[in-house]
Amino acid sequence: NFEYNPKEIEKKWQDIWDEEEAFKTSTDRSKPKYYALVEFPYPSGQGLHVGHPRPYTALDIISRKRRMEGYNVLFPMGWDAFGLPTENFAIKNKIHPRIVTENNVSRFKNQLKSLGYSFDWSREINTTDPEYYKWTQWIFLKLFEKGLAYKTEMPINWCTQCKVGLANEEVVNGVCERCGGEVVRKVKSQWMLKITEYAEKLLNDLDLVDYIEKVKISQKNWIGRSEGAEVDFNIKDTDDFIRIFTTRPDTLFGATYMVLSPEHPLIDKYKEKITNYDEVLEYREIASKKSDFERTELSKEKTGVPLKGISAVNPVNGNNIPVWISDYVLMTYGTGAIMAVPAHDERDFEFAKKFSLPIIEVVKGGNVEEAAYTDTETGILVNSGFLNGLEVKDAKGKIINWLEEKKIGKRKVNYKLRDWVFSRQRYWGEPIPLVYCEKCGWVPIPEEELPLTLPEVENYVPTETGESPLANIRDWVETTCPKCGGHAERETDTMPQWAGSSWYFLRYTDPHNDKAFASKEDLDYWLPVDWYNGGMEHTTLHLLYSRFWHKFLYDLGYVSTPEPYQKRTSHGMILGENNEKMSKSRGNVVNPDDIVNEFGADTLRTYEMFIGAFDQSAAWSQQGVKGCRRFLDRVWKVQDIIVDGDSFSKELEVKMHQTIKKVSLDFEQMKFNTAIAAMMSLINDFYSNGKVTKGEIKTFLILLNPVAPHITEEMWQLLKFEGRIYNQKWPVWDEEKTVEDTIEIAIQINGKLRGTALISLNEEKESVKEKVMSIDKIKEILEGKTIIKEIYVPNKIYNIVIK
Ligand code: ANZ
Ligand code: ZN
Q1: Which of 788, 714, 717, 713 is nearest to 749 (CA)?
Q2: Where is this motif: 'KMSKS' region (predicted)?
Q3: Cβ(662) to ligand 1 under 6 A?
């Protein structure tokens, strides 16, 4: 009965940890704090998949190690539970989304518990809990109060299948990121959040944080800062101007035509003058059905219509140039109009080729007969009047000054970042706590009346007009205006799923507070999050949104750090055995429950950390799972060869110190796989040494504990070590003992120095002799001679006397 039986011991220890509140965050503020965070899951109907344990185990390892290092650790967990899949499931199965959510949460929680994570469950939060979303609504009202929430008619991305508006970030390759449905553009009145007001801070403050490089880069690209100029082109024979944004004002002399976005307002203003106005309207209609992604895709065939009857004047040379409309120019970026420089811009080049528009080279270096020359580093200006001979960067400065002097243009910075579409026409989300009064406009619900809870409805299907199902509950919609007491109507849109996750890390610091979203004291103590790990897919949405909300609360004085997360890392995906994404349709989904049942949670944890470099994707391998189980079996069996002795044996002393060092440092750098490999190697050495001292096994178990907490806790108890392993001290290594002591000795023959040898300190004479005699040069000298005497001065000289 000395078999390793994870089924028994894992449940046993999970219960003990619960009972002892082993991982409850301490209120002791004298200790240094450590806040470790993983992205809370969306409790989907599918339950946990094997992708979840990878990041969770990683930060569980860090959290357990930190506790042993003497930190007060906050490692919380909760549920990001609003959202479409739950609502769609509820509609299909006629179950209330709240019930669906409860069921899913309870399943997820059991699964997480079965993996032995050291979460502080007393701080569990759920974004759909009215006590939670009260504060989501409260923050929204603050944004509204400060003018950062506004409602506007705007063309939005509309998922034809989900019947909701989507943020740009939610449209992936032209389709809805959730359902894969077709996305078209639709004009709708939507609540928007002015994240653009924070574009600069969101960009600049990346310097304050320690994010892995690829996360920083994608944040930067998403914010998309462009430096350039705005330039006004006169519409010939009128007082109107077409304002354009360009990053290449140096190429102004090469602007041979202009392009307006099909939605540009000047088109309507000039409908009398535009002789092919019908054709223009027809083109606009077709463009309106395309997503921004389709419109701007580089490879797509260029289309467009000239605005016949009007032309523009190039301000640098007075040339008349034609004005076109084309869908590759977006109304939502810059000014919605461009000057086209086909010699130096790829899209303009293709467009000019297709419609036989003139191409004028203004920067030398390429071959503009064949392709646009887009280099901005090395070219020299030509065909450009007073800019001729200048390098691009100098030409830019000079032309901008010239434009500013003449008051026809100015320096300008643009951001790709768009305001955040904050409305969803769905039921399962936080109600937006505003009412509309004919007299007073949009009026916030008084703070004392929060939370504004979701009313019960019969039917969650969005209305045919695309309005939220809440619009049908008239007695909820009809209300009175808090300001004037007159008749008012509630907003029926709800918030997007990103709302609840934009501030959840703040709530964890004080999750049961009913006076504030968290107390200042708790926020001050715990923030910033010391280490946040999450998926790359959340780099442009959640990470940016939550940084925005945090910065907003910082500006209002509610939080004391400008950034929410000090460090951000990201894990790779776990793929199926054949290196494909795991999916139901491929039939290659591995259920973590099955692995736990067959091999144990410790095996699953060890395997997911051993599977490969943490930041890279890795293919599942059942063989690999078995290998990790075999390793734990060998750890267990070490109990057969344990001998007394609190210290490390001579043979293994160096190896022990090396392993402590390697595991400690590797964990910090998320090199979990190599840390585990080092522990596997140490186990092998235990066996080849034929014995393990108590001191050695003790240290080994502590090192392995963060990865495999159950088996190590059980062995700790069986070996009658004191207390629990979870509150031991993390071992420290002695740097000097991590290197084998090697020294150089001199070799003398008949009193003459003939060579040196490397030996380890205090090496036995016999083995030193062996080394000396195996040196080629020594062998040569001794060839055919007789050794009369050998004297070894330990650690110094090996003397040989010959005849
Ligand atoms: C003339 C020019 C010459 C341009 C050249 C580029 C190269 P980023 O870096 O993305 O900011 N542009 C401006 N507004 C646009 C809109 N609403 N829709 C589509 N394209 C637009 O790119 C800025 C450049 O994208 C601008 O500089 C403009 O083309 C185009 F050799 O102006 B450029
Ligand atoms: Zn009113």
Answers
A1: 788
A2: 581-585
A3: no
Residue ID of nearest Cα to ligand 1 atom 32: 246
User: Ligand 1: which residue has its CA nearest to atom 19?
Assistant: 329
Ligand 2 mean position, distance from CA 464 (Å): 29
Q: Which of 156-160, 450-454, 624-628, 743-747 has the lowest mean pLDDT?
A: 156-160
Q: Quick one: average pLDDT of 96-123?
A: 97
Q: Does ligand 1 lie within 6 Å of residue 226's CB atom?
A: yes
Nearest CA to ligand 1 atom 2: 248
- Residue 407 assigned as binding residue: no
Above 70 in pLDDT, residue 36? yes
Q: Is the CB of 534 inside a 6 Å radius of any atom of ligand 1?
A: no
Q: Is 708 near ligand 1, meaning CB less than 6 Å away?
A: no
Nearest residue (CA) to ligand 1, atom 26: 246
Distance 148 CA to ligand 1 centre (A): 28
Closest CA to 105 of 86, 132, 84: 86
Q: Torsions phi, psi of 766, nearest 5?
A: -55, -45
The CATH code of domain 20-138+499-575 reads: 3.40.50.620
Of residues 688 and 178, more confidence is placed in 688
Task: Determine the distance from the C-alpha atom of residue 613 to the mean position of all C-alpha atoms in its chain, rounded to a whole number.
Answer: 17
Which atom of ligand 1 is nearest the CA belonging to 332? Answer: 17
Which ligand approaches the C-alpha of residue 480 most closely? 2
The CATH number of domain 741-802 is 3.10.20.590: yes
Pairing of strands 567-569, 692-693: unpaired
Closest alpha carbon to 584 in 576, 595, 574: 576
For residue 164 the two structure tokens come to 């909701």
Q: Is residue 368 pLDDT above 80, yes or no?
A: yes
Tokens describing residue 514: 């009913």
Contacts of residue 703, Cβ cutoff 8 Å, sequence gap at least 6: 659, 660, 663, 679, 731
With a 6 Å cutoff on the Cβ, whether 256 touches ligand 1 is no
Provide the angle, in degrees to the nearest 10, between the axes of the packed helices 6-19 and 97-114.
Answer: 110
The residue whose C-alpha atom lies closest to atom 29 belonging to ligand 1 is 246
Does ligand 1 come within 6 angstroms of the Cβ of 344? yes
More confident residue, 110 or 180: 110
CATH 3.90.740.10 applies to domain 225-415: yes
For ligand 1, say whether the CB of 233 is within 6 Å of any of its atoms.
Answer: no
CB of 373 sitting under 6 A from ligand 1 = no
- Would you state the structure tokens that stand for residue 299, as one six-digit string? 């490879």
Distance separating alpha carbons of residues 49 and 46, to the nearest angstrom: 8
* pTM: predicted TM-score of the whole model, two decimal places: 0.87
Ligand 2 centroid to Cα of residue 278, in Å, is 44
Between the CA of 334 and the centroid of ligand 1 the distance, in Å, is 8
Ranges of each domain in the chain: 20-138+499-575, 225-415, 596-737, 741-802
Residue nearest to atom 18 of ligand 1 (CA): 329
Q: Does the predicted interface ipTM exceed a cut of 0.85?
A: yes
How sure is the predictor about 155, in pLDDT bands with cuts at 50, 70 and 90?
confident
Q: Which amino acid is at 448?
A: E
Q: Indicate the class that CATH gives domain 596-737.
A: mainly alpha
CA geometry: angle at 285 spanning 281 and 291, to 5°?
140
Per-residue pLDDT at 169: 67
